[in-house]
Amino acid sequence: MTGSPGEQAHLVAKQSDKRFAMSDEHKAALAEGRAQGRAVREYLAAIEADRKPGRKVDKGTVETKIADVQSSIDGEPDPAKRVELIQKRLDLEAKLIDLQDDVDLESLEQGFVDAAAPYSERKGITYAAWREAGVPAAVLKRAGVKRTRKAAEASARQPAGRTVG
Q1: Best CA proximity match to 49, nearest among 102, 125, 110, 109
Q2: pLDDT of residue 106
Q3: Residues with Cβ < 8 Å from 64, sequence gap 6 or more?
Q4: How far from 103 is each of 36, 106, 108, 156, 159, CA to CA, in Å?
Q5: 141 to 65, 121, 135: CA distances (angstroms)
Q6: Would you tell me which of 22, 94, 105, 108 could form a disulfide with 26, CB atoms 3.0–4.6 Å apart?
Q7: At what angle do helices 24-50 and 105-123 cross, to 10 degrees?
């Protein structure tokens, strides 16, 4: 190499900064991993939201409550009480919007079923971890995630006749 040390350093940095193009296969594998991760996250979020404690509230019940509160507002002579009732009605209307934005659990579950086995393999996630996260056993079975026990696998690898003690 000729030139000043500064020019040489610049050339070396320029050569080492070259980026290698990813193959189409690598890009497809990354895209597949992202899609699997998204399917898993969306399903887990949906089942977690579905497990909230308390009675389930349906759309009809909320609509009835809104109508009842509105009739109370119309007949309330006390302005302070009326504003409280208005707030209650607004809260119920917001809850009604949330209920209408309900997710399609069946399609999320199918996405999870399609993604769970390869995702589990890649991330080292066991059947027990999925179960503790709230995924039903039937869904894991459909997904092809096998019941395994790390302790059982570890003991199976120990040579016969050896005891731990």
Answers
A1: 102
A2: 86
A3: none
A4: 18, 9, 8, 43, 50
A5: 41, 15, 10
A6: 22
A7: 120
Q: Which amino acid type is present at position 73?
A: I
User: What is d(CA 121, CA 127) in angstroms, rounded to the nearest whole number?
Assistant: 11
What's the one-letter identity of residue 32? E
Nearest to 134 by CA among 46, 55, 57, 54: 46
From the list 59, 36, 41, the residue with the least C-alpha distance to 115 is: 36
- pLDDT for position 154: 46
CA distance 129 to 125: 6
Q: Which two tokens stand for residue 24?
A: 């189409």
Residue with tokens 């809104």: 66
Distance of alpha carbon 157 from alpha carbon 165, whole angstroms: 17
